Structure formats: structure tokens, C-alpha cells
Amino acid sequence: MEKLMSDLKTQIIAQLNLQDTKPEDIGDDQPLFIEGLGLDSIDALELIVLLQQQYKIKLSNAEDGPKVFKTVRTMAEYITAHQAQNA
Amino acid sequence: MKTENYITASCVINNNIVYKNGQPLFEESGLELPEFLLAVYRHFELQYPKFHKMDNLSKLGWLANEVLLQDNFDKEKYKPEDVGIVLSNANASLDTDIKYYETTKTIASPAQFVYTLPNIVIGEISIRHCFKGENAFFISEEFDAGFIEQYVSNLINNNILQCCICGWVDVFDSRYNATLFLIEKDKSANSVNFAKENLNKIHQLKLSA
Description:
heterodimer, A: mainly alpha, 4 helices, B: alpha+beta, Peroxisomal Thiolase, Chain A, domain 1, 8-stranded mixed sheet, 8 strands
């Protein structure tokens, strides 16, 4: 899980062009949107693209978005659960 | 009806040189456009994380506007609705349209898609400075100083705007240029009449650079 969260931070920075942000600036449980990292609705769509490109996961239910993309940890948990399901 | 308005500041970015009021402020030759734009952002010590998400057209226009207004613009003089933006170029958003189209062959990029209109650069400038006045983006093969003078004068002389940022912001592949003018009703130090001859003269700086 720690390795996955570390990879995700690097991938989020690259995908969203967060050039002023370093992986260590993103906390595992820091909210990604609004008061946390300050991501917006376009960033949310880019996170969906990231899941598809990097992990071959399609978010089947858009209503899951707020839960899945709440923090780096919730993203990692979703990926892990999805990979276990498809193993 | 008042008919005299003034160019109170100008900014030209071309050939990897940034000019403010005709004076070169920054030069970094040998860089490709994205790297040059980042070098300008860093040189002027700008702090705006969203800059990094913009396409090249928006970055160029946004940077030219930051330089244009730096030390020259008294924001307190105007209400948000008083300040408008009128821009033009030859290639619309074609540079980004092509990049976006490439992404559609795999997974379409939402971040690229939102820049597939040329007037998005006006939105980026407006968001940065909370400008809410009239705005327009025109496409023409070349910079049409006569049209810009007429259109902007009409907005100001009819009190639709009190101040206008106008000019040319164009990007296609490695070719780019930007010329922005700050147009106000009152004279200031070194201002010149808002006339097509003066617009062309400032724009020529770019062409001859």
C-alpha cells in the first residue's frame, strides 16, 4: 500500500501538471479537492483518465468518484480492491 | 462623446524576448516555447499554480497580461465590470485542437479539451484579475490595428468599458507572438494616443525583432 500511494502521488503530479507540488507535499489522508490539494472538476476527470491509463480501471459508477478520489489512500484502497477482485 | 483614449502600456513577447513599453525586460534564446514560457513565469516570480495547467496560447496571453499590468495598472480605479478584454489571432486554438485530437486516439484528455477554444485565454486573464467587462476574441489572418482601434474605441466611448486590454495572441506549433495594449481614458506618463498607427508601430517591434 505504501509503494502504491507513493506511485500515485508522482502520477497525480504528472497527470495534473502540479509543477509546484512535490510528492512529499501530498499527505496520504489529505483531501485532494477544495480545502486540501485544491483540485477542481477537470482534475477529477483527469484522475479518472489516470486510473484508466495506469491501472486499466474504469470507474463504472460516477457516483463513486467523491469516495474514490477523496485522498491518495482511498484511491490506493480502490485500486487494491479492484486488482484483488480481478486477480 | 469623448473620442481620445490612450495606450498607457504595452507588452510584446516574440522571438524569446519580453518587451514592456518597448524595452526588453527578459530574453532567453534557444528554448522551445513551453520551456521559454516557464522561464518567463519564473523570471517574473509569478505565483499561480493554475498556470502550469494552461495550454500554450493561454500561458502566452496570461504572461503578456501579467507583464502589461505590472507596475502600470491601478486596479482600484475601476470596477470589475469596467475592464474588458478584446483579443485576436490567426490560428484560433488550432495548436491545442491538434494536441487534443491526438489524445482522442487513446483516452481523450479533459484538461486539453477545455482549451480547445481561443477565448479561454480571456477567461484565464479575467479569473486572475476578477475582470468582468465586455470581452471578445476575433480571428483574422493578420493583426488588424484599424479594427481593434474601432471596436475598442466604440466600447470605451459608449461607456460600456472604462479600460480595455486588447491586442494579438497567437500560437501555432513553434511559432508564436503576443502584443497586448492597455487602453485607458486618461493619459499617463509615456502614454500615446490610441490610434492604429501607434498600435502598428508597437506591433512592428515584434515583427522586426
